[in-house]
Amino acid sequence: MEQFLQQVINGISLGSIYALIALGYTMVYGIIKLINFAHCDVYMIGAYVGYFCMRNFNMGFLPSLLMAMVVCTTVGVLIEKIAYKPLRNATRIAALITAIGVSLFLEYGTMFFVKATVRTYPPMTGFMAKSFKVGNTVITMQQVIIAAVTVILMVLLQFIVKKTRIGKAMRAVSQDKDAAELMGINVDATISFTFAIGSALAGAAGILVGVYYNSINPLMGILPGLKAFVAAVFGGIGLIPGAMIGGYIIGATEVFVAGYGRSMYKDAVVFAILILILLVKPSGLLGRDKKEKV
Amino acid sequence: MARLLKTNWVKKSLALILTYAVIQLLISTNILGGYYQDTLVTICINIILAVSLNLITGFTGQFSLGHAGFMSIGAYTCAIVVLRYQTLPSFILGVFLAALTAAIVGFLVGLPTLRLRGDYLAIATLGMAEIIKNVFLNLDKITNGAAGLSGIPQFINWFWLFVFTAGTVLLILNFVNSSHGRACISIREDEIAAEAMGVNTTKYKVIAFIIGAACAGVAGAIYASYFYFIQPTLFGFLKSIDILVIVVFGGLGSISGSVIAAVVLALISTYLQAFSEIRMVLYAVLLVVIMIFRPQGLMGSKEVSLAVLGKLGGLFRDRKERV
Amino acid sequence: MPILAVNRLTKYFGGLTAVYNVNMELEEHELVGLIGPNGAGKTTIFNLLTGIHEPSSGTITLARDGKSIALQKLKPHEICNAGVTRTFQNIRLFKDLTVLDNVRIAMHKNIGYGLVSGLFRLPLFGREEKAILEKSAELLNIFNLLDKKDELAKNLSYGDQRRLEIARALATKPVLLLLDEPAAGMNPVETTQLAELICWIREYFKLTILLIEHDMSLVMKICERIYVLNYGLVIAHGTPDEIRTNKQVIEAYLGEDVGNGNA
User: Fold this and answer.
1) Which of B51, B99, B45, B78 has its CA nearest to residue B210?
2) How many domains, chain B?
3) Strand C16-26 relative to strand C4-13: parallel, antiparallel, unpaired?
4) For residues C21 and A269, what is the distance between their CA atoms, to the nearest angstrom?
5) What ipTM goes with this model?
6) What angle do CA C110, C112, C114 make, to 5 degrees?
7) Mind listing the pLDDT tens digit for each residue in C84-98?
């Protein structure tokens, strides 16, 4: 039972990170139907920005978090403007290859500047290093922070999407780009904004991972990125609540499989679950099946 | 008509024999040394991989991101066979077993997943390849886990390389120009109309998938036999992406495009070795630039014909059409 | 025995009843019209007949060579192989393929060589491909499309595309042909030509034809019997003269009175 509770806590931490990344995938997919492979590298950049802020500029956690989010937002918007926008009317597969190109560019560009070596985050001190026990279950302050930051960001995202003008524009563009344009919505700006928000969330996830797991490297984004995308598909791609639920389920699954002695198979289990859900309900947990009109 | 077909056939055979002979000559005279031979093998493997993925993605329209998975199955099958029986016949047997095992796995994977469409299929095949990789990582007794298999005897030479490469390309070329191939193409064009015209879409998707998988298995077998050493991580997601890049760069639905792209990309990659630090960055930039300026790939869905003049005329016509 | 017997055919989409308790019988060699206001469920009936949608209940029975085949559980390609094909309201040609390939693909079910012959170019392959080529040319010639056989389907004129779609359907050698608004978007001259063509192919290919059409003059002119559909129900059926004077049909088309007609 105690072990179970401990796994739940660990699962929530990992799930939070997947959920934050998955949101970016799902929003971009929802709006321009592109699997944005470069998204996982934006997350990696977030981790590096956090690292340099904390190690080289002695900034605290919160300022570093904000900095990472700001830098990632910029990177995300630039990617969209430079690489994706010219291809908006090209085939999906051409756009996908472009996304892969951007992803490689970010990975190996970063590697060029910071070298391929694994770097360790500075050890947390004071408040951030605390941990407390509930029964025999250990909860570290880092885990609390991960959960708290994630919840705050998600609430904020829900507010933006549901209550603001730009959120309404995002929903409209994801429904029907042409119709939205005819209704006077600035589609380009809306798409850029979507990239901005998604990238900011990925940046946050990056620094949280750095703080939680300590080590970072230029290729760190690939596998979590894949799994976050799995999470997005699992929950129903294009759906924000789906990405959140998917993130937590995938995170928890992974932690439980690893926790019960099958850590070598944890990736296989995640992908098996993905294939299973696709076969049973291709539109994902919360998605609705759409049939082509004949 | 029949005579024309015959001359065309003769021309094709001549071109093939000539290619074989010229490269054999270059190897014999040592103009094509060790390093370039590596490139040559890589090119041939990539041709097989790209052409077979083109059958699945370019012709049948089924978006697969798991081609490296089938390659790994072929590589391991052949490696295990030749490590046990180190003779040329057992290598040939190994290649066929590699094709067979990959085909069986292709069938088992394809039957359920090919009901999915577009990105969903892509992500399911990606997941499938990751699972295959994971299984190889964990089957310590058979695959030696993450450390991989090494010391695989090298039976592949230019003759066998040429036979397998030309063989798979010709088979796939024959397939796409048959009624069965047309059935596959109709699925890409409009699945619902294809069904209504009597094409068993599930069957033909699975057939394309099986043929593609079998060829990828052959490529894997060649890889294992030439490079001595295999490990599961060689056949990960990035390898699948590499293959897809060749296919898209050459043009979806163009066999000759895939062949040309495999050669061009290998040459670019070799040339970029000189800038090893920023090689991948340049490659990435190139990829994005190509996609922005020529999203349909080098060839679109057209094929290079033997008659150069005809080709030039075709290019000319093409340009006019676009204006 | 009627060649097609539809019995109590019903289709629900979620809470919506698209087709309800439809009974229909087509005798061999008949040319029957299916009409009704927009959204009455005409195309849904075609989709049910060709297996694109599965019926919620009811049966569809095709009689062929003295045997009766239950179509309601078959997949689209099986239904096509049983001898029922269609055209689509919104033209679904293989747009990026040539005219010839469009027709050749539809001949696939009657192909006389297997996968192995195809892969290895065995002699059988050559003979069969030649036969297909000849048959395709013959069919395209009937539709005046032979000289355009190497053009991409998307580059054809609208009328040619409509006719190619019929040619493609005929290439599957059907006994029952379903035409979904073949005259849509055509001008009066083209429509008249189409009417003649439909009558002619029925005789030449010995077909039974079920026709959805909005152009009332076309339906009245060439169909022997007409079914009228409204809100998923068959509200009338009979000869063109009977339909013309049927009170329910007039109401369905014009509304009971102008005030709440389409509410």
Assistant:
1) B99
2) 1
3) antiparallel
4) 48
5) 0.90
6) 115
7) 999 999 999 999 999
Dihedral angle sign, alpha carbons of residues A11, A12, A14, A15: positive
Q: What is the mean pLDDT of residues A196-216?
A: 93
Residue B316 amino acid letter: F
For chain C, the domain total comes to 2
Cβ atoms of residues C221 and C195 within 8 Å: yes
Residues C227, C152 share a domain: no
Pair C32, C101 in one domain: no
CB proximity C53 to B under 8 Å: no
Over residues C110-151, the pLDDT tens digits come to: 888 989 988 988 889 999 999 999 999 999 999 999 999 999
Q: Are residues C9 and C117 in the same domain?
A: no
**E strands present in chain B:** none
Using an 8 Å Cβ cutoff, are B93 and B156 in contact?
A: no
Residue A184 burial class via C-beta count within 10 angstroms: exposed 0-12, middle 13-18, buried 19 and up? exposed
Contacting chains of B (3 CB pairs or more, <8 Å) are A, C
Do C238 and C164 lie in one domain? The reply is no
**How many residues are there in chain A?**
294
CA distance B136 to chain A (A): 11
Number of H helices, E strands in chain A: 11, 4
State the CATH number of the domain containing residue B298.
1.10.3470
Rounded Cα gap, residues A49 and A70, in angstroms: 10
Name which of B19, B25, B69 is nearest B44 in CA terms. B19
Which three-class secondary structure state does DSSP give residue C10?
Answer: strand
Look up the domain containing B111 and give its range.
34-322
**Which amino acid belongs to residue B202?**
T
Cα-trace Rg, chain B: 20
Selected residue of B4, B12, B59, B179 to mutate for chain C interface (largest C Cβ count, 10 A)? B179
Place of tokens 């798991």: B66
Q: Where are the domains of chain A?
A: 16-221
- Min Cα–Cα distance to chain C from A294, Å: 8
Residue B34 identity (one-letter amino acid):
G
CB contact under 8 A, B116 and A97: no
- The sign of the torsion formed by the CA atoms of A103, A108, A109, A110 equals positive
Q: Tell me which of C82 and B295 has the higher pLDDT.
A: C82
Q: Determine, yes or no, domain membership for B5.
A: no
Q: Is residue B26 part of a domain?
A: no
Residues spanned by the domain of C74 = 1-83+174-263
Distance CA(C29)–CA(C2), nearest Å, equals: 10
User: Please, which chains are in contact with C (at least 3 CB pairs closer than 8 A)?
Assistant: A, B
Q: What are the pLDDT digits (tens) for B105-158?
A: 999 999 988 988 888 888 889 999 999 999 999 888 888 888 899 989 888 889
Are B46 and B54 in contact, with CB atoms under 8 Å apart? no
Read off the CATH number of the domain in which C64 is found.
Answer: 3.40.50.300
Q: Which of C112, C146, C173 is the last residue of a domain?
A: C173
Q: Fill in the amino acid letter for B65.
A: L
Predicted TM-score (pTM) of this structure: 0.89
